[in-house]
UniProtKB/TrEMBL annotation:
UniProt keyword list: ATP-binding, Hydrolase, Nucleotide-binding, Transport
PANTHER family membership: ABC TRANSPORTER ATP-BINDING PROTEIN
Protein name as it appears in the record: Daunorubicin/doxorubicin resistance ATP-binding protein DrrA
Domain of life: Bacteria
Organism classification: Bacteria, Pseudomonadati, Pseudomonadota, Alphaproteobacteria, Rhodobacterales
Pfam families, per the entry: ABC_tran
Domain ABC transporter: start-end pairs: 5-234
GO terms for MF: ATP binding; ATP hydrolysis activity
Leading EC class: hydrolase
Enzyme Commission designation: 3.6.3.-
Organism, as annotated: Flavimaricola marinus
Gene: drrA_2
InterPro entries registered for this protein in UniProt: AAA+_ATPase, ABC_transporter-like_ATP-bd, ABC_transporter-like_CS, ABC_transporter_ATP-binding, P-loop_NTPase
Length: 308
């Protein structure tokens, strides 16, 4: 796939001297879903705002579909749909009129058939003539997405798209995002919900203190950085680790009542069988065995801690 958004050495320093972005370089491939994770103040919203032309970069370049966002702003912006974190809608307008206005602002001819397609895709067609003030929070989020899509952008930015939305509606939104990707829309989302990124993103970028720490395929990130642990409950507490396992990644926990063995699932041998044999030979009786695999949240927290 080719990059539809290309960012090179991007920096943003505000008049106060605060560096919001520090040399960000990133390629976003056409047709992918990429999730940007980071704590508050990491630079996620600044990055999106800069790509969309809302914030002027201090240095570096950004192109969208080959258009520079500074020198070719109109061409770049016409390819972008932006769903902001805030509910920026006219409460006394209808979804249909909101979409007509947004399409017109981008210089597109009136096309109610296309608007109908977008509203149906977002399960909003039966609410097309309702006042936005009467819609639920989840429906208002959908109207924001419809508003961002009606000028037929190739890239859609979703800034915290499910903030304040309950779990059921959040999962419905995930399905909407997947459907949009199937239609060829490239989607970049920022989120505080780790499970959201893990569930729908093709790649994950982690941002902290204005820098991109890594960008990797979701599955690869989980397999390369995720740890798997075997917890061994003992019948009787052990005072210390047996000499036979002292040189392995084994830790005595809970006042000697359990052992934690950390291992790499990608290796040909995990070493579990040999470990259990050595523990048995040392006279330790095992009551129970359980395994735990690192979640994306744990990986994310570890990465951000390293930059603190």
């Amino acid at each position: 796939m080719s990059a539809i958004v290309s960012i090179r050495d991007l920096t943003k320093t505000y008049q106060s001297g605060y560096e919001a972005l520090k040399g960000v370089t990133l390629d976003i491939e056409e047709g992918e879903i990429i999730a940007l994770l980071g704590p508050n103040g990491a630079g996620k919203t600044t990055l999106i705002s800069t790509i969309c032309g809302i914030v002027t970069p201090s240095s570096g370049t950004i192109t969208v579909g080959g258009h520079d966002v500074v020198t070719g702003y109109r061409g770049a912006r016409s390819l972008i749909g932006l769903v902001p974190q805030e509910l920026t809608l006219d409460s006394f307008e209808t979804p249909m009129n909101t979409c007509r206005l947004s399409r017109g602002l981008f210089g597109k001819k009136r096309d109610d058939a296309y608007i109908e397609k977008v509203l149906r895709q977002l399960s909003l067609w039966d609410k097309k003539d309702s006042k936005i003030i009467a819609l639920s929070g989840g429906m208002k989020r959908r109207v924001l997405i419809a508003k961002a899509l009606v000028h037929e952008p190739r890239v859609l930015f979703l800034d915290e798209p499910t903030a304040g939305v309950d779990v059921e509606l959040r999962k419905e939104m995930w399905e909407v995002v997947r459907t949009l990707r199937e239609d060829g829309v490239t989607i970049i989302l920022t989120t505080h919900y780790i499970e959201e990124a893990e569930a729908i993103a093709d790649r994950i970028g982690v941002i902290a203190k204005g820098e991109v720490l890594l960008v990797q395929k979701t599955g690869d990130l989980m397999s390369q950085m995720g740890k798997k642990q075997l917890r061994i409950e003992l019948v009787s507490p052990a005072k210390s680790l047996p000499d036979a396992v002292a040189d392995r990644a084994v830790e005595l926990v809970d006042d000697g009542r359990a052992l934690i063995y950390t291992y790499d699932t990608t290796k040909e041998r995990t070493g579990i069988t040999a470990l259990l044999n050595d523990l048995q030979s040392a006279g330790l009786q095992m009551a129970d065995l359980t395994t735990h695999e690192s979640s994306l949240e744990e990986i994310f927290v570890d990465l951000v801690k390293e930059t603190a």
